[in-house]
Amino acid sequence: MCNRLVLRLREQGWPDYLARWAGSFMSGRSARVRYQDITTPTTPLQCGLPQGSPVSPILFLLYTEPIYRLGNPEGRFGYADDTAILCTGPSLEETSRTASEYLQELVNWGAANGISFDPKKTEVMHFSPRRRETEPPVRHGDAEKQPEAAMRWLGLWLDRKLTFKTHVETWTAKAQAVAHHLRSLGNTRRGALPSAVQRAVRACVEPILLFGVEAWYPGPTLPRWRRPTKEGPSRIQQLVRKMTKALKQAIRAILPTWKTTPIAVLHRESGIPPVHQLLEA
Questions:
Q1: Contact between residue 115 and residue 64 where contact means Cβ atoms under 8 Å apart
Q2: pTM above 0.70, yes or no
Q3: Dihedral sign, CA of 161, 162, 167, 169?
């Protein structure tokens, strides 16, 4: 692995002294594990990057950089050790077949470079505006991976039609859990100062509630197909309503008033803006 990394750095055009330093960084390494009062004997490391060093993730990314120059480079994405392959086509059968080929190419590259890809962590998602139809699996080695109903990528939950309903429901539930804990700190008679709880809501509830909104919120000007109709609110409005419910619970943690208190009064007295203002901030 050490020699491969040095060769990779030289192929990428890095200065020779930097490549030799990386080789020295990986040479003569040892490790031991400590748990409470027990420490294991020192064991020499034959390969791999040492954990805990800020240099290790950088060298790992440089070593795995060729992954993103394999077939269909414009459809390959990665963050740290997470890799995604996006395939497009006129049918799900074609995209599944193409994805299987690209995945096999990735597995072959890993075998030649000392990197393994765990099939248990491989997830498949079909994106299509059509109604649910036959969803062919994607092969990862000897395993067939069935498509998921929802898939998480860097904290964002993606669904088949990119409605982001699962994403909003997941993060709204997390925000409600935090708000519930804050509400337990006081009631209408005693408890934490409202100013302290308000700071906790701004610091702990709002970031959770607004996580990833840039991926699905289009802004104040909605396209025609996203505007509300006579049949009911648009999908965006439905997501905003779910978030509003969680934010109301957080506001009532700041001001433990009666349930009949108008929500407009709660927003004004708590200093917490409505959801639509937070989205457009």
A1: yes
A2: yes
A3: negative
